[in-house]
Amino acid sequence: MRAVPNWGVATAVAAPVLLVGGWTVAGARQPAGYDPVRDTISELAGHDATDGWIMITALLLLGCCYLAIAAVLHAAGLPSRFLLAVGGVATIALVAFPRPAVGGSLSHGIAATVAVLALALWPAGSALRLPRGPDTAHPRVPWAFRRGVALSATLVLLALFGWFAFEVTNGSRTGLAERVTAVGVSLWPLLAVLSARRAHLARATEGTTTLGPALPTTGAVPPDPLFPTDGPDRLA
What we know:
Helix content: 55-70%
Radius of gyration: 26 Å
Structural class: mainly alpha
Distance between the termini: 55 Å
Largest sheet: none
Order of helices and strands: HHHHHH
Low-confidence stretches: none
Number of strands: 0
C-alpha cells in the first residue's frame, strides 16, 4: 500500500474548507433576500449572483481536490477512486453548466445529481472488493475501507442525498439540506486519507521492528567464538 503524500493530506483538508468558506464568503456578498436555509449553493455561482466568481472558484478548486485525492488514495482501490474522480469532474461541471437566473437547468441538475451520487457511493466501492468475512478478518485494511464502516458511510451519505432530493421537490429547507449533504461528502475523503495514512505508518513501524537480541550501541564488535581475544588460539 502506497503512502498518501503530505500534499494529499493537505488537499483533503482543503476540500471542506473551500466548500464552507466559499459559500460563507459568497453568501455574505448577496442581497438581503438570499436565505442559506432556503436557497441553494448553486445560486451563489449562478448568472445573477453578486460576485459569483467566489463560489465558482471554490467549486473549481473543490473538484480539483477530489481528483487529486483520487489520484493518490491507492488504498481505496480502483472502483472507489474512479467514483471519486467522477464526483470531482461533475463538481467542476457545475460551473460549466451554471444555474440560470430564472427557472431550472437540466444539465445543471444532471451534473449535481452525478456529483452527489458518485461522492456518496465511492466508499462502498472499497468495501465490496474485500474478500468475504467480517472486518476482523482484515486487520491490515484501513478502518475507513473496511466493509462495515464503508457501507455505513455510503448509507448515511445516501440518506442525506434523499433528504436533499425531498427538499428540492417538497420542502422549504433546500439550502440547508444541500449544505449538510455537501459537507458530508467532502469530509469522508478527508477521513479516508487520514485512515490510509495511519495504516501506512503503522505498517512501516511494524517493518522496522527488529527480531532477536539487540546489538550493543557503543560501537564495540562482539567477540568471534573462533578467534577469542584472550587465551590460546583454538585452531593452533
